[in-house]
């Protein structure tokens, strides 16, 4: 039985970095040749569906790091 249908913005679970109750995704800040620089963006999550998580706050139209979040430096070491 389907009770309702909902359309929202979401990201793969692999793109989400959870620190306590706070979630972050990483947006492409700049690209230099083969080097990519990302900046953390705090998000509010909503529903989960399969391997995707709904993002309820506004996202800018920028590229999102979908995999490899686990290999980034700690957020407090970011220069932003």
- Counting helices, strands and paired strands, the structural category is mainly beta
Mean pLDDT comes to 79
Q: What is the molecular shape?
A: elongated
Number of helices: 0
Which percent range describes the beta-strand content?
A: 35-45%
**CATH third-tier fold name:** conserved putative lor/sdh protein from methanococcus maripaludis s2 fold
| Low-confidence residue ranges | none
Quaternary structure = single chain
Helix content: under 10%
Number of domains: 1
3D architecture notes:
With 80 residues, this protein is mainly beta. It contains no helices and six strands. It starts with 9 loop residues before the first strand and ends in a 25-residue tail after the last strand. The model has no long low-confidence stretch (mean pLDDT 79). Strand 3 (22-32) and strand 4 form a beta hairpin. The strands form two sheets. It has a three-stranded antiparallel sheet, with no helix packed on it. A three-stranded antiparallel sheet has the order 2-3-4, with no helix packed on it. The chain has a single domain (10-68), classed as conserved putative lor/sdh protein from methanococcus maripaludis s2 fold (Beta Barrel), CATH 2.40.420.
Short note summarizing the structure:
The chain is mostly beta strands and 80 residues long. The chain has a single domain (10-68), classed as conserved putative lor/sdh protein from methanococcus maripaludis s2 fold. It is built from no helices and 6 strands.
């Amino acid at each position: 039985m389907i009770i309702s249908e909902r359309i929202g913005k979401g990201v793969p679970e692999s793109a989400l970095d959870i620190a306590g109750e706070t979630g972050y995704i990483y947006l492409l800040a700049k690209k230099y040749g083969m080097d990519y620089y990302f900046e953390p963006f705090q998000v509010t999550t909503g529903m989960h569906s399969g391997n995707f998580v709904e993002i309820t706050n506004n996202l800018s139209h920028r590229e999102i790091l979908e995999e490899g979040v686990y290999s980034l430096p700690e957020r407090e070491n970011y220069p932003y």
